[in-house]
Amino acid sequence: MWFKNLSIFRLTEAFTLAPEELEQKLEPLSFRSCGLHEEFTFGWTPPLGKTAQQLVHNANGFMMLCVKKEERVLPAAVVNELVQEKILEQEEQQARKLSKKERTEIKDELIFDLLPKAFTFSRKIYAYIDPKGGWLIVDAASAKSAEDLLSLLRKSLGSLPAMPLNTIEKPSTTMTQWLLNNEAPDDITIEDECELRAPEEAGGIIRCKRHDLSLPEIKTHLDTGKVVIKLAVSWAERLSFIIDENLSVKRLRFLDLIQDQVADIETEDEAAQFDVDFSIMSAELANFLPRLIELFGGENKA
Question: Dmax of the chain from CA atoms?
């Protein structure tokens, strides 16, 4: 289980629940499949998969969680076409134009009739809690997905004092200086991808991929006022990722130094391999996150 994205939340109060206590609080909101007329369901599921029972997977003090969302698929184009056919049919029968309210009722009734016949698909979002470090880390590429998991966790626990990571220096300002000066901290290697944005509202965006970011043309864009809002970097030859202006980490890869550690450990089954992967990943990120904060001037706790 290797996270590919990091949405980082700081726990503003000590997290004191033991894994068994957390498990009990999650159980009432366990995942269940969609009912015939439900558009989606959302609930906790065992991180280890269908064969497991525990909703909390504990390893070395880190607690892995997983939420599952199941949705019924009703293509909007199909629904709209059927709605229009139904509206035209009724308007011809009644020789009048239907009101907005009547049109809405037709659509609602149609969706109600179609839902039981719709296919379902599901997706999972993983996260873990680091009580010692004071972190909640969500493997989510979008802020909405991370907030969905956070909202369900707050509902399960009653409350959860947590907020997105905030640093003293703006990430975009710091990353812009790295490119302008063609100089980054010793443990940071700038790679070949970035995104630049003009400062004015609705300003232009420049995206560079597989591009030497030390070339003069990049500096020219920066000299005209554009700032770096995404930058591909690697850290200490251990992690490779894209960091954005909100301190979200995307396309995270654990490099050979980490993968060699995993390869050196023999496991008997899938559950044991999951445990090894999670233990090494969470320990690595526990070392990385304080350094991430340092890179951007320290944590802003105001």
Answer: 77
Beta carbons within 8 Å of 56's beta carbon, 6+ residues apart? 19, 20, 22, 23, 26, 47, 63, 64, 65
Q: Which residues of 215-227 are buried (b: 16+ CB within 10 A; e: fewer)?
A: eeebeebbeeebb
- Tell me, yes or no, whether 302 lies in a domain: no
Q: Are 70 and 23 within one domain?
A: yes
Question: What is the distance between the alpha carbons of residues 139 and 289, in angstroms, rounded to a whole number?
Answer: 15
Q: How far apart are CA 11 and CA 163, in angstroms?
A: 7
- Residue 201 scores a pLDDT above 80: no
| Residue 301 domain-assigned (yes or no) | no
Cβ contact 173:225 at 8 Å: no
Q: Is the pLDDT of residue 217 over 90?
A: yes
Q: CA-to-CA distance for 47 and 287, rounded, in angstroms?
A: 23
Which pLDDT belongs to residue 203? 79
- pLDDT, tens digit (0-9, with 9 covering 90-100), for 178-190: 999 989 999 999 9
Give pTM, 2 decimals: 0.91
Domain span including residue 91 = 78-116
> What residues are paired with 125 via a beta bridge?
67
pLDDT (0 to 100) of residue 300: 95
pLDDT tens digits, 103-151: 999 999 999 999 998 999 999 999 999 999 999 999 999 999 999 999 9
Residue 35 backbone phi and psi in degrees, to 5: -75, 170
CB 111 within 8 A of CB 142: no
Q: How is residue 225 written in tokens?
A: 């006022």
Rounded to a whole number of angstroms, the CA Rg of the chain reads 24
Same domain, 127 and 190: no
For residues 10, 232, 224, 206, the Cα torsion angle rounded to the nearest 10 degrees is -110
Give the C-alpha separation, 93 to 147, whole Å: 48
User: Which class for 270: exposed (0-12), middle (13-18), buried (19 or more C-beta within 10 A)?
Assistant: exposed
